[in-house]
Amino acid sequence: MVCWGPSRWGVRRLLSHVNHLPRDSAYVRELQGERAYWDESVELLAQTVDAIRLNSYYYLGAHGARPDEPKWVKRPHAAPAVSAPPAASGGLAEFNALIGE
Fold this sequence. Notes:
mainly alpha; two-stranded antiparallel sheet; 47% helix; elongated
């Protein structure tokens, strides 16, 4: 038994409470660092920003400009960022095959 406050808690109960602390608690921030703030909504925002940057890169490139490579949102859990966007391949035939026409 663990003494905690006016009542006695068992180790399992104490461990359960520690494991379910909120993301912004000091304990979780110390263990996970920057990843403690990175949840699903932040990941979706990062993917949206990356998609807009990539779309702008392709749009400007298709209209004769020489844009700088897009800068990706840095993620705390990801491998090193890719320096260039994925190469476009195929063409109209591959696109039509992809969408089923």
